[in-house]
Specification:
Layout: E1 2-6, E2 9-11, E3 17-24, E4 31-38, E5 45-51, E6 57-59, E7 67-72, E8 77-82, E9 91-99, E10 112-113, E11 117-121
Parallel strand pairs: 2-11
Antiparallel strand pairs: 1-3, 3-8, 4-5, 4-9, 5-6, 7-8, 9-10, 9-11
Amino acid sequence: VQLVESGGGSVESGGSLRLSCATSGVTSSNFCMGWFRQRPGKEREGVAAIYRSGTSTYYADSVKGRFTISQDNAKNTVYLQMNSLKPEDTAMYYCAAGVRVFRLFDQESYNYWGQGTQVTVS
């Protein structure tokens, strides 16, 4: 399994970014895909998740209503659309994949990780 994130960058407060996670080897419908972030001086935290087999999406309270996770199975890509960005969203964002994930925002539940993409909001 390989995960490669892209789409990070610098944006002003209130702006938008779309992160992409290109996947390979994530073929089983049992996979759950998650987006995590690690803010400066903080522990890594889950922000959004989606099961490969379904359309239900899950969000941390801090991003609910502003971030949207989606997937294009034909392109083997998972997205994180981030709107109304705030300075506190500044973080390294990681894509993760796991099988039989029951605790969606627990990083220990995920087996595979991308290298991360930096998002800076000023």
